[in-house]
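User: Predict the structure for this protein chain, please.
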Amino acid sequence: MTNLRELHRHRELFLNLTLRELRGKYKRSVLGWGWSMVNPIAQMGIFTLVFGFFLKVDPPIGDPSGLHVFAFFLLCGLLPWTFLSNGMTGGMGSLLANASLVKKVWFPRQFLVASTVASFGVSFLIELGVLTVVLIIAGNMVVPWMLPMLGVAMIQGVFVLGVALALSVWNVYFRDLEYLVGIGLQFWFYATPIVYPVSVVNSALADRPTLLSIYRLNPMTRFSAIYRDLYYSLRAPTISDVGYVVLCAVVALVIGWVSFNRLQGRLAEEL
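Assistant: Here is the predicted structure, written as structure tokens:
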């Protein structure tokens, strides 16, 4: 409770740190915030060419939307993944990047991680807004599902923050963690149904229910399913998927919060 009161008392600092991250993200770049659009579009083009054209990955037909476009199917999973990846890596390095600030003055150090995650969250919301407009133009009426989509984005934000809090403080004491996480993210990406439908995995592991159950423990598998239910298929996600991602978000936040509080005492000395 003492920590929560301190965070509330310094809430303006969190806002200022977030604004600093947003202003500095594309500082002195020609396109500025346009890079928030260019990067996912470039990734979409590459993956669409490789998986949609060369490897002939057939996306499922949205039910009941009837949408059958690989690029839209890909984006509904790729944008949440990009938020996770950027939030994890950015939050993990936030303490090291602000080492001089940590060593000079006391303030809730969680704000450094949270402001970084929040800045990527803003970029994620902008990307979702553009995807919303494009889907509406394509005839997929996603307007009724915009509010549930924001709720899911907030749940994912809590999940990313929890993971980033734990990684950021562990990274101070174990500097090799940054490289291990980079390798782990590559494996995690292809272990998540982003460039392929989950039906491929269900068919491949139909006779191995244990492996299939382990596969479905991946939180991003459920997140991608929820995003696609809402924006690709235009239907409500299953209660089990929503309940599972909420549970994962709470567990991640608790682990991240406890880890950070236990290890932050010697941050200034380690940095």
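Residues 47-270 form one domain.
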